[in-house]
Structures are given as structure tokens and as C-alpha cells.
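Progress note, sequence design subtask.
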């Protein structure tokens, strides 16, 4: 039997003659759960809300023919209130079978639009952006294009998802269903369409709900990441189900590494610097052709100092339980976390032997991790190949790209961000923002120093792990940057 009932996290209370509904939703800007009230609520509405809190109400209960005009008006009003609660994302729409709950639509935020099963013969197809996640009750099917989750609790419905990979008519869907659910096939198709995990197949053989995102070039991973990290509405109930961070002190800002030797870098000294800030911005560009004369240790020291050195260690949020060690550097970082560390594949540099190094931003020194081993050589080769494929590098033919003097690898200590943002889902998004800030800082400082800078579009986390000997779960590479002397 199809029915509606309140989703978890909805609280119903009374305030004299009013009924107050507390939703499970808040916003990024206002962390308090949203509420609304029914003023001077009448008895039929009170009964409806009570039923929604307990056993639920039949989906078609307010579509049945009334006995009197007065009851028709009441029925219409209650039907409108039910629709309002549904669109506010407060109601589960469920279908039961012989085995109990078979399938239900679970709202994740307000804005759900109920889609009826079309009367004409249409074909339906699973969204190409749909994802399937196991849960205790069964399988959750979601898509970043929809504010709802479709939960399959009866395992006999699992073949339906596989069937929807190809266009399915109403009759095909009906025949896939278990016998006890076939009578509800139209309501089930309505759930598929309302949840957004399936749509009507269009002339391009895509679900119609996907077409705009497909034309814009989105893939499932990017769209899901965007939705997760840019959402405005926060669902308190879903936050409760997320893994809780281990109750421990936030990781320190400075992390010890095993190094073979230390190379102290020269203190910064800028002589005869005539280029002003606005000229640097105007002149900033990627340069991929290098002079045979390598970068000097002095130039490298200046680049790292003005891009990344730690000016000061600070205590952030000292009055809160989540207080943590923060840093002040020349480049911006969300919350002063500065989880990004710099590693250098030095191919050639006047004053520093080739090898793989970590930049100590506190002591302004390089800690040698290894010689220029095979993974380092592979990273340098990848940088060359990436350069040759760059659309701006039309003057460089494939196979004739130059190795940079130095390849800088940005690696993040994810735990630093996760200690603050594991529950918000923003940890990795903020890391990428920090990496973007660092890219621009390196570009501007390198331009001011008259070096040849070039940011790379991709790199290899596996090669970094092999070169550094550090697990990618502890530190993972998120960006690469090449440096040389301009030709």
C-alpha cells in the first residue's frame, strides 16, 4: 500500500492552539533547524499530523470522493497541506508489499516535485548520474540532480535497477515487479520519476532529467563532488549517520619526517627589484622553454620563502574545544590550517645536488628524502609529457619538451582538514582551494624573480607515494608546478 509518513528528524509540538513543525534542515549560514507553524490548527489537521507521525496515511486518501460539500472543502485543505509538507521535504513516500516496506522516497532537502506516472506510453531510463549505496535497510539510489534518495528495501526489486539501464516501458517495469507489487506499478514509476534517479527517455536515449547536465559536459564524479561541497541546506539527521571523528587532539601543524640530510637555504635577498606588483600580474604566464643555465639555490630559496615559509605559529579558536595549531604563511589557507606541504624533485640546481626533498617551511631548509630515484624520474617525465600536450604550448612538439630544473609537488596532510571538516564534507574541497591559492602565489613570486613558472594540470599520486615512501592516506599529492630559468 502506498502511503506518506513523516521522515526521521521531523518534530511536531504544540504551542497553545498552534502546531509547530521542526524540520531536520538548517543552512550553512544559519545552523539552527528550520521551523514553521500552523496557527489555530483545527482538529482534522491535528489528526493528519498525528497519523503522519505514526502509521502514515494512504497516498490516495484525499483523492476519494467526499460525501458532502463541507467534507470536500476539508479534504481539499488537507490535501493541500499534505502536498506542502511533501514539497518541504518532510514526508517519506513508501510502498509496502507482502514483506513489509518495499521501496520509499526519502527527502534530503526541500524542493521535491511529485511526478505522476504518464498516461501515454513512455520509456523510462536510469539517470547516468545515479549512484548505488548499500545501507542497513537495502540499497540507496541517489543522484546529485535530485533532493531525494530512492531506497529499495525489498531485495526482489534489485533487478529493476539493472533493467532500467536500458529504456523500459510501463509494461516492462510492471512485469519485472514481484506479483504483490504489480498492482502498485504506477505509484512505483511515480517514485522513480519523483526521486530523480530515473526519467523519461528522450530522443537522445538519455533520461530527460540528465540532458542539460550532459550538454554542459558534467560527469557523475564532478557533479556529485560539486553538490556535496556547495550545498546550502544541511540535513541534521543525515549528519548523525556520518562517521564521527576520533576524539583526539587535532594533529600538530609541524610534522616530523625521516630525512637523510638537511640543506639550509639562503635567507631571502631581493636586489634591484624594479618590477612592481601590477607589472607582475600583467606579466604572469606559463613558460615551458628553459635556459641551459639552471636555477640557483638562492633563487629557489627566494621562491619558497615568499610563497610558503611559516611566518608565525598561532592557536586558532582558543576558547573552543576544537582549538588547533594554525600557521601564518604568505599564501592563504582556510582556517589557517595549511595542510599542504611542498616536495621537490630537483633535476638540476646550482648549489643543491639532484634528489627528492621536503621543504621545511619553519626552518627554511630542504630535507633530502632520497636521491633522484626511478619514481622521481617518472614524475619529471610525466611533467614533460603534460607540457607537450598543453594547448598553449603550440611551439613545443611532442617528444621535444624540456625537463624542468625543479618539479614542485604539493601534498596535503588530509587529517589536518578532516579534524575540523569531516562532518561538513568540505575537507577535500578546501584543500583544493588552498592548492589553487598556492599555484597563483608560486606563479606571481616566480614572475617577480624572473623565473620560468608552469603549473601542471595533473600528476600521479602513486608516483609521489613511491618517491616519498609516505602512505597516500597520510599525505597525498594534489598539484604539481615546474620551475626553470627562462630561455
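Output:
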Amino acid at each position: 500500500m502506498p502511503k506518506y509518513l513523516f521522515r526521521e528528524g521531523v518534530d511536531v509540538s504544540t504551542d497553545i492552539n498552534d502546531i509547530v513543525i521542526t524540520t531536520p534542515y538548517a543552512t550553512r549560514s544559519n545552523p539552527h533547524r528550520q521551523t514553521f507553524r500552523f496557527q489555530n490548527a483545527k482538529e482534522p489537521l491535528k489528526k493528519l499530523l498525528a497519523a503522519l507521525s505514526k502509521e502514515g496515511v494512504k497516498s490516495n486518501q484525499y483523492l476519494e470522493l467526499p460525501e458532502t460539500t463541507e467534507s470536500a472543502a476539508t479534504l481539499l485543505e488537507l490535501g493541500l497541506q499534505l502536498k506542502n509538507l511533501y514539497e518541504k521535504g518532510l514526508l517519506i513516500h513508501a510502498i509496502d508489499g507482502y514483506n513489509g516496506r518495499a521501496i520509499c522516497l526519502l527527502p534530503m532537502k526541500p524542493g521535491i516535485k511529485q511526478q505522476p506516472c504518464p498516461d501515454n506510453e513512455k520509456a523510462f531510463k536510469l539517470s547516468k548520474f545515479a549512484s548505488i549505496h548499500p545501507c542497513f535497510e537495502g540499497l540507496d539510489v541517489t543522484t546529485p540532480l535530485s533532493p531525494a534518495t530512492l531506497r529499495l528495501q525489498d531485495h526482489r526489486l534489485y533487478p529493476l535497477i539493472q533493467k532500467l539501464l536500458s529504456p523500459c516501458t510501463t509494461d516492462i517495469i510492471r512485469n519485472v515487479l514481484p506479483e504483490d507489487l504489480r498492482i502498485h506499478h504506477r505509484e512505483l514509476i511515480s517514485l522513480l520519476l519523483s526521486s530523480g534517479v530515473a526519467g523519461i527517455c528522450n530522443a537522445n536515449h538519455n533520461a530527460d532529467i540528465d540532458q542539460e547536465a550532459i550538454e554542459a559536459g558534467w560527469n557523475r564524479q564532478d557533479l556529485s563532488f560539486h553538490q556535496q561541497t556547495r550545498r546550502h541546506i544541511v540535513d541534521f539527521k543525515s549528519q548523525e549517520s556520518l562517521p564521527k571523528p576520533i576524539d583526539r587532539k587535532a594533529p600538530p601543524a609541524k610534522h616530523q619526517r625521516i630525512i637523510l640530510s638537511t640543506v639550509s637555504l639562503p635567507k631571502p635577498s631581493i636586489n634591484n627589484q624594479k618590477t612592481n606588483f601590477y607589472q607582475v600580474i600583467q606579466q604572469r604566464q606559463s613558460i615551458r622553454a628553459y635556459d641551459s643555465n639552471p636555477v640557483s639555490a638562492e633563487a629557489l630559496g627566494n621562491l619558497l620563502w615568499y610563497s610558503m615559509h611559516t611566518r608565525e605559529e598561532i592557536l586558532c579558536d582558543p576558547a573552543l574545544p576544537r582549538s588547533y595549531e594554525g600557521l601564518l604563511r604568505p599564501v592563504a589557507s582556510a582556517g589557517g590550517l595549511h595542510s599542504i606541504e611542498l616536495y621537490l624533485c630537483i633535476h638540476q640546481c646550482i648549489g643543491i645536488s639532484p634528489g627528492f626533498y621536503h621543504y621545511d617551511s619553519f626552518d627554511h631548509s630542504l630535507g633530502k628524502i632520497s636521491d633522484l630515484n626511478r619514481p622521481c624520474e617518472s614524475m619529471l617525465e610525466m611533467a614533460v609529457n603534460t607540457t607537450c600536450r598543453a594547448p598553449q604550448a603550440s611551439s613545443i612538439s611532442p617528444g621535444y619538451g624540456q625537463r624542468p630544473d625543479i618539479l614542485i609537488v604539493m601534498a596535503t596532510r588530509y587529517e589536518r582538514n578532516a579534524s575540523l571538516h569531516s562532518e561538513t564534507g568540505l575537507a577535500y574541497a578546501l584543500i583544493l582551494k588552498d592548492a589553487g591559492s598556492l599555484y597563483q602565489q608560486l606563479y606571481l613570486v616566480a614572475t617577480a624573480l624572473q623565473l620560468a613558472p608552469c603549473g601542471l594540470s595533473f600528476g600521479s599520486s602513486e608516483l609521489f607515494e613511491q618517491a616519498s615512501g609516505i602512505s597516500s592516506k597520510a599525505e597525498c599529492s594534489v598539484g604539481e608546478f615546474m620551475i626553470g630559468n627562462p630561455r
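The chain has a mean pLDDT of 89. Work on this subtask will continue into the next period as scheduled.
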